[in-house]
Structure formats: structure tokens, C-alpha cells
Amino acid sequence: MKITLLVVGKTTDAHLEALLQEYTQRLTHYVSFAWKVIPELRNASSLSLTEQKQQEGQLILRAVPESAEMILLDEHGKEMRSIDFATYIQKKMAASRDIFFVVGGPFGFSETVYERANGMVSISQMTFSHQMIRLLFTEQLYRALTILRGEKYHHE
After folding, report:
1. pLDDT tens for each residue of 62-113
2. Does residue 16 form part of some domain?
3. Residues in a beta bridge with 105
4. What distance, in Å, lies between the first and last C-alpha atoms of the chain?
């Protein structure tokens, strides 16, 4: 079982990239975790928002195997406390399927991606940049795994 964070576009902020690498390294002690980056669309400014979402959606669907669980990180997804997210991760891991958590492009997901998704999780009701969501998710995944192991990282 492997967890993959699938994102559209590179992380361009060096500070965020350093923190992402730190939490990615921490995660390797608990689970097989990887990043997969889909390149940003070329000439995106010449496309309508719908066309951008459709083209990104095709790339996302090609990147996620049919056998994998696909969970969208989406503002309309289910919000959870960290402890609830830990329980959610535990249940997903017990199914022994690879899990892809997906961060879409700046305009969200296409209808075909929503149709394929096995679930949606919201990080917050607040809006964050797609680059920050990567860090927030990775930290929350690390936190969830430490909660499941009864480690002292999370205080409640």
C-alpha cells in the first residue's frame, strides 16, 4: 500500500519546498509515500477555464491507476479534525489499496475527475494557494500517522 500526493504544477517557493521535503522524509518512517507532479498546461492562458480543467483532468486520470483509491483535496470535501483524519487514513490503509490524494489546478477539477473520485477531503473552509495545500496536507498526513502510533507530536 502506497500513498501518493498528485499535484498539478511544481512547487516554486523554495521555503515551501524545503518544508515539503522535511515532512516527506518524516513520512517515510510510517508509510510508503511519494509525490507525483503533473506539469502545468502550456499556453493555458489561451484556453477557457473549462478547457483547462478538462485537459488537467485527462492528465490526472491518466496518472491514477484504476485500482487505486482517488481522494480529491477539494473545498467541497469533508472537513475533519486531525484525530478524525487519522481514523479516516487508518480505514483507507486497512483496505490495502494504493491511495492517491489529488490537488488540482487553480480552477479545480473537471466533472470527469469528480466522477472518478472515491472521496473528497477539505483541508479548511479558508482558501489557500495550491502550493500551500501541499504542505498542509503533508503535515496533516504525518500528524495522522503519529496519532495512530500514539506518539507525542499531536497534543489534545
Report:
1. 999 999 999 999 999 999 999 999 999 999 999 989 999 999 888 889 999 9
2. yes
3. 108
4. 29
Q: Alpha-carbon dihedral of residues 65, 10, 76, 71, nearest 10 degrees?
A: 20
Neighbouring residues of 150: CB distance < 8 A, sequence distance ≥ 6: none
| Lookup: cell for 94 | 486497512
In a domain, residue 154? The reply is no
Domain-located, residue 53: no
Q: How many domains does the chain have?
A: 1
pTM summary value:
0.93
CA geometry: angle 140, 58, 123, nearest 5 deg: 20
Counting Cα atoms < 13 Å in the Cβ hemisphere of 101 gives: 25
48 within domain boundaries: no
